[in-house]
């Protein structure tokens, strides 16, 4: 255990029993432990972080080389060194003047060219210039998985008030139930299928793409004309039969889980139009500028990362709940699961040694207020502490339902307050006394009504869930994951941990079809025997 971690752990032990609420006795805590980025604000004052903790964490970021790695990433260096790739998703949202070099080549002209082609295609689809066999496209089906699904699906749902194009649907799971249910209500003659796959080899996506083509072929003479593709593999999209005019390429320096900003966002662009998509990119860009220029002590992604490191690696809280009080962000937790867990769920440091700490946390969540009626019981009274990340907009998109928005906001604030304050045994006794309980029964009942409190949370507030604000939020989390990865000393941009299962699944396919199972362990053998049809 290196000194930097040990000092933080010792400090955490020394403050562990201190009530968070007591930190508010010092005036101005909420302001001192909040940070603004544009109109968004992150309040991390309801944590056990004090000035000393903050200073130690900021030093941790500095000595871990966050600034140097940040410059290397934006500068096109091959920081994804287990795959020998640069990491330049930020170039996808860079401004019109930007030049971004990797391997001595400015990547921006190609990015702009592809974006312009996407915008032309999008306008043609939306205006009816591009038609299906049955006329104007009414529905778009995006077939992809992981980063080729979670990002665009989450963004499409989040920006529902901005939809003015065809209906957009997503198919990801290899389970035939998914594609059947989606295609059931659609007319093949007015449907456009986008096959979204960085590699164009992912078995789930290619299988679903074949299924969609067969479905379309029953009604449409030349289905390939109603297919578009988004990929880095132009040879493979051509082999699948998709005309190059409807193929939108990108380079291998865009990781799947970071790819929504470019061609993988085509379905989003079709739903909201190229202008609103530009606003989304501008939001991401604004967060990039903030991340690049603000000192660490006022840098939202850096501070959010440090809060994460404090709770997980220092205090030992193994999971983190993301709780958007924004129904349209209901897919955000799933999106963040890939972003955070595929990026930082690793045990080996860049140099091949074992990580000296735990890897990134388990990330999970659901929108409020739904979660309150499901798992908040454990968050409030369970034996493990789950740091919570709340988020809520000042305004909703439904002016007629402002009273409902008020209820939403009050619930969000109430939860973080309840987690921090808790309810003491004496308070619980008073409640039970009022209800008429006495003696042992009063004592027993009161204990069930105690909330330990002192449970940390952060709250991200923003004006309204617009394309710009959503862009800010996603880029905030991307950079948070990056900073945490640098501090942990791992490579946030590879994903070797998904490979073994893929290999074994390929080998199991023929075994399930009747092949020799004897090389498998006893459990797998027995399960294969049960599941064989
Ligand atoms: O298996 C994991 C993964 O490689 C993700 O990283 C990626 O987002 C997903 O599969 C889909 O990959 P592709 O876009 O190449 O189909």
TrEMBL record:
This is Glucose-6-phosphate isomerase. It comes from Cypionkella aquatica. It comes from the Bacteria. CDD domains: SIS_PGI_1, SIS_PGI_2. Pfam families: PGI. GO terms for molecular function: carbohydrate derivative binding; glucose-6-phosphate isomerase activity; monosaccharide binding. It is an enzyme of class 5 (isomerase). Pathway: Carbohydrate degradation; glycolysis; D-glyceraldehyde 3-phosphate and glycerone phosphate from D-glucose: step 2/4; Carbohydrate biosynthesis; gluconeogenesis. One of its GO terms (cellular component) is cytosol. It is found in: Cytoplasm. The active site is at 342 (proton donor), 373, 502. The gene is pgi. The keyword Isomerase applies.
């Amino acid at each position: 255990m290196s000194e930097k971690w040990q000092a933080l752990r010792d400090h955490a032990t020394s403050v562990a029993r201190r009530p968070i609420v007591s930190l508010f006795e010092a005036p101005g805590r909420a302001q001192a432990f909040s940070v603004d980025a544009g109109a968004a604000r992150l309040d991390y004052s309801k944590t056990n972080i004090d000035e000393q903790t903050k200073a130690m964490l900021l030093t941790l970021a500095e000595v871990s080389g966050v600034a140097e790695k940040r410059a290397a990433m934006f500068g096109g260096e091959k920081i994804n060194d287990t795959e020998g790739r640069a990491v330049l998703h930020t170039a996808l949202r860079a401004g019109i003047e930007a030049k971004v070099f990797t391997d001595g080549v400015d990547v921006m002209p190609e990015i702009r060219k592809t974006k312009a082609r996407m915008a032309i295609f999008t306008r043609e689809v939306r205006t009816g210039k591009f038609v299906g066999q049955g006329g104007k496209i009414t529905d778009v089906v995006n077939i992809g998985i992981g980063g080729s699904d979670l990002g665009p699906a989450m963004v499409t749902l989040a920006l529902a008030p901005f939809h003015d194009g065809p209906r957009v649907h997503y198919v990801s799971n290899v389970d035939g139930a998914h594609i059947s249910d989606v295609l059931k209500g659609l007319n093949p003659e007015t449907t456009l299928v986008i096959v979204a796959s960085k590699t164009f080899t992912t078995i789930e996506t290619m299988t679903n793409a074949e299924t969609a083509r067969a479905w379309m072929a029953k009604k449409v003479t030349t289905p390939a004309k109603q297919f578009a593709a988004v990929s880095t593999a132009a040879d493979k999209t051509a082999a699948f039969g998709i005309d190059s005019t409807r193929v939108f390429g990108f380079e291998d320096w865009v990781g799947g889980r970071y790819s929504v900003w470019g061609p993988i966002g085509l379905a989003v662009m079709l739903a909201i139009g190229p202008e609103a998509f530009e606003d989304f990119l501008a939001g991401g860009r604004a967060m990039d500028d903030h991340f690049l220029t603000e000192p660490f002590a006022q840098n939202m992604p850096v501070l959010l990362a440090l809060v994460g490191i404090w709770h997980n690696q220092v205090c030992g809280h193994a999971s983190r709940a993301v709780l958007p009080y924004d129904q349209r962000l209901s897919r955000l937790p799933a999106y963040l699961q890939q972003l955070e867990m595929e990026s930082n769920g690793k045990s080996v440091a860049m140099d091949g040694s074992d990580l000296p700490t735990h890897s990134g946390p388990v990330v999970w969540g659901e929108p409020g207020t739904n979660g309150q009626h499901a798992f908040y019981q454990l968050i409030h009274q369970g034996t493990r502490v789950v740091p919570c990340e709340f988020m809520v907009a000042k305004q909703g998109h439904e002016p007629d339902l402002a009273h409902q928005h008020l209820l939403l906001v009050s619930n969000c604030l109430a939860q973080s307050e309840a987690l921090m304050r808790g309810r003491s045994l004496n308070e619980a006794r008073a409640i039970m006394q009022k209800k008429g309980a006495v003696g042992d029964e009063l004592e027993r009942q009161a204990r069930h009504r105690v909330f330990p409190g002192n449970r940390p949370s952060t709250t991200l507030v923003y004006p309204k869930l617009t394309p710009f604000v959503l862009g800010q939020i996603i880029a905030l989390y991307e950079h948070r994951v990056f900073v945490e990865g640098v501090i942990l000393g791992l490579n946030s941009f590879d994903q070797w941990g998904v490979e073994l299962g893929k290999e074994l699944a390929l080998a199991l396919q023929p075994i399930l079809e009747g092949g020799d199972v004897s090389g498998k362990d006893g459990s797998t053998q027995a399960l294969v025997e049960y599941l064989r049809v």
